Amino acid sequence: MKLARLAAVGKLKATHVPSLETREYRGLIKYRKKLVGSDNRLKNSIRAIFNRRGIAISRGERTWHTGRVEINAYRKPLEECLMEELWRGQLDQSRRAGNPARSDPGVVEDRREETRRHGQG
Description:
This protein is mostly helical and 121 residues long. The protein has a domain at 41-121. It contains six helices and no strands. It has helices spanning 2-8, 20-53, 61-64, 68-72, 86-98, 105-117. It is elongated. It starts with a helix and ends with a helix.
């Protein structure tokens, strides 16, 4: 009721609403930031797996480009891992999480379902 009275006497200030194009651009920037954060979390978890094992891997961007061959040499499907090799299976799962399109269809569907449950999709 108070708002209606203020509006009637012209005491309400207009609020700026960005254009649709600006809102979409901001949404795109926000989404990119989210993807970069996910990428960094994944890289940090892979680096942590090697650090726990005392294995030195390349530093910086080289690790994720030319050093990928080195990292992949340690990967092993989780189903084939012995108890003491589970970290190798973890590397394989990290690769799949980083690129679900190259993993099993079931993994992609599980991630979609998880996103739906958390109200993000």
